[in-house]
Design a protein that fits this description.
Distance between the termini: 35 Å
Bound molecules: pyridoxal-5'-phosphate
Shape: globular
CATH topology of the largest domain: Aspartate Aminotransferase, domain 2
Low-confidence stretches: 1-6
Structural class: alpha/beta
Largest sheet: 7 strands, mixed
Length: 444
């Protein structure tokens, strides 16, 4: 181990191959988090860091909540693990029931995974299995969207719309995939407050794809209602409604990837509720357990479950599952999390803070480099002008300086994404804006 690979915790950094990280640069100048409580992290050098990102869009109820910690710890002592194949345990069924009670009408079945990526691949398989069960096994094409992020499984990167997530893997993708255009257009929509007024017609590209490919070959359309990972892209008014109508017209399933938007982020239980558009399948993760234990899920229309089950005479109906599907610790964490969301009215709280959030974020319009501000619920994207020949450099420098100034933000390209825990206090909204304004003043 070399001296410059040591840090203030005296932990050697060489061995871990870090995900989605510039490993060599990080290990030269690490940013290490040591503990967390409520709205704050503490860095390994003892600084308080205001969490403007809910960790990674996960920690909607704030960090290290006693109720969740206690539930996990009690469950670890009671039953640490239970096999999920041909066996079950009550907590997983209880959790599925609780979730169905929160979902838009029609979504009545829950399949547990361990992550958003797994939820996405599971939902894609469900779509194929459903069509096959109904005698439409030629429906194998998936339609994703440019700038979509659906995790990192081969299914997810295929339907996702991020080139860099594919380039290193020699084109080994799902074979039948097409993409819709994304909806981000600064010329028409810069500095929109809430949903942009322009852009619903972009959904009509789906009709064109249907005409090109033939409706009878298309299994499903998958979109994030609000795209987070590619820089907070808010759907234009009427856009999701149009996608829904076109899917209905052609017997195509609509999948909403709500890994980021689920569990209160938009001031409603799910984006589906906020926008009044119900998908046929929905993927979630992150806020499901407040990030405390890995867990994801797919919510399915009841008749999708019925069709797949009824297609099999006896025995296993869906050849898919994970060793840790419905893990007892994750179930305990999720149930305690749902209790907290409900008891503290956190989704309504997010809705009640939206106006202040919007005002504070849009005031950053006057800060240096800002070319767009967009917001919905407790999410905002602050897009910066890229440096000539160095896309992403200014965004990354801003992210690093925010951390040095006591704010955890998220950066994608030159967009700073903010999504604080829903327990944020009004004064902390102003603090986020103030740190970001100062930092932008110091970034070249
Ligand atoms: C919309 C969306 N889908 C899927 C994923 C993948 O989730 P995970 O990282 O838990 O696999 C993410 C992660 O950020 C996401 O934002």
């Amino acid at each position: 181990m070399t001296a410059n690979l040591m840090n203030d915790t005296q932990v050697a950094l060489d061995a871990q191959w870090m995900p989605f990280t510039a490993n060599r640069a990080f290990k030269r100048a690490p940013r290490l988090l040591a503990s967390a409580k409520g709205m704050h992290y503490r860095s390994s050098d003892g600084r308080r860091i205001l969490d403007g990102a809910a960790g990674l869009w996960c920690v909607n109820a704030g960090h290290c909540r006693d109720e969740i910690v206690d539930a996990i710890s009690a469950q670890a002592g009671e039953m640490d693990y239970a096999p999920p194949f041909q066996m079950g345990h009550p907590l997983a069924f209880e959790l599925a029931d609780r979730l169905v009670a929160m979902l838009p009408a029609g979504l009545e079945r829950v399949f547990f995974t361990n992550s958003g990526s797994e939820a996405v691949d599971t939902a894609l398989k469900m779509a194929l299995a459903y069509h096959r069960a109904r005698g439409e096994s030629e429906r194998v094409t998936f339609i994703g969207r440019q700038r979509g992020y659906h995790g990192v499984g081969f299914g997810g990167i295929s339907v996702g719309g991020i080139e860099t997530n594919r380039l290193a893997f020699s084109g080994q993708l799902l074979p039948h995939v097409a993409h819709l255009p994304h909806t981000h257009d600064l010329e028409h929509n810069a500095f929109s407050r809430g949903q942009p007024a322009w852009g619903a017609q972009l959904a009509d590209a789906l009709e064109t794809l249907v005409a090109d490919q033939g409706a009878a070959t298309i299994a499903a359309v998958i979109v994030e209602p609000v795209a987070g990972s590619t820089g907070v892209l808010i759907p234009p008014t009427g856009y999701l409604e149009r996608l829904r109508a076109i899917c209905d017209r052609h017997g195509i399933l609509l999948i909403f990837d709500e890994v980021i938007t689920g569990f209160g982020r938009l001031g409603a239980s799910f984006a589906a509720e906020r926008f009044g558009v119900t998908p046929d399948l929905m993927t979630v993760a992150k806020g499901l357990t407040n990030g405390a234990v890995p867990m994801g899920a797919v919510f399915a229309r009841r008749d999708i479950y019925d069709a797949v089950c009824d297609a099999t005479q006896s025995g296993v109906e869906f050849f898919h599952g994970y060793t840790y599907s419905g893990h007892p610790l994750a179930c305990a964490a999720a149930l305690a999390t749902l209790d907290l969301y409900e008891r503290e009215g956190l989704f309504a709280r997010a809705a009640s803070l939206e106006q202040q959030w919007e005002t504070a974020m849009h005031a950053l319009r006057a800060a240096p480099h800002v070319i767009d501000v967009r917001n919905l619920g407790l999410v905002a994207g602050i897009e910066l002008a890229p440096r000539a020949g160095a896309v992403g450099a200014r965004g990354f420098e801003t992210f690093v300086k925010c951390f040095e100034h006591g704010l955890l933000a998220r950066v994608t390209g030159d967009t700073i994404a903010l999504s604080p825990p829903l327990i944020i206090e009004p004064a902390q909204i102003d603090e986020i804006a103030s740190i970001l304004r100062d930092v932008l003043g110091s970034v070249s």
